[in-house]
Amino acid sequence: MTTPDLTDAPGRPTTAGDPGALAGLLTDEQAAWLATACGDVAADPGSAVGHLARAGRAVGRTSLDPDLDPAGVLHGTLDDAARARLVVALAGALPPDGESLATRLTETYQRGDTPERRGVLRGLDALTLAGKPSDTLPPAVVRAGTTLAADALRANDQSLVAAAVGPFAAAHLDDHAWRHAVLKLVFMGVSLDAVAGLDDRADDELARMARDFAAERRAAGRVVPDDVARIAPGAPDRTGAPTLPTVPTISLANHSKDA
Length: 259
Hints:
Organism: Oerskovia rustica
InterPro entries: EboA_dom (IPR047715)
Distance between the termini: 37 Å
Order of helices and strands: HHHHHHHHHHHH
Protein name: EboA domain-containing protein
């Protein structure tokens, strides 16, 4: 598995897991709520469950980038980023072996609605980015995170699948799972801009899978998504002609409106 470069490269979009994702986006009241909530979690880890559930009402559900990602599918929403901050606070309040954190994140994901599940996944991204370039996540957290990401990648909610292909996935999903995650986004019509570390991890096997997918779609008389050309240059386009690499159009599909 190729280790992706998760540094702040020029042009890399801000996602909900980035430490500065909320910079300048919250009102004073919203920022005060989040600071208080993070303080509560640091003092009492058990309070995280309630704060994670309330994040949407407290800071809102607006996209982090309304112009390029109106529904917040690709890079997340205000409440995604707030929940990611809460996960980081929770990690700091628990033993460093990660066992308790892994258990709490798993329970929160399993019991939560779609936004709370996205928040856990974006929180794993935040922990991954907070540890770069040398610190690694505890094995227990990595095991739990890969299990949760695998569950999210079986879902049909675009925002949940997109949240499962961020920096944590780039660093920790095995090649087989990661390739299938990328191809699922193509199938769902979600822009590959959602995928962290795409250029570093894309390989010949992913290109082969994308070309096979394109051939099957063409044989069935169905449209071949533009993003196929991004991971398999030369694959037939929607008309059946070979294509050159193109920049995909951002998916504007709406995601779950759960609270």
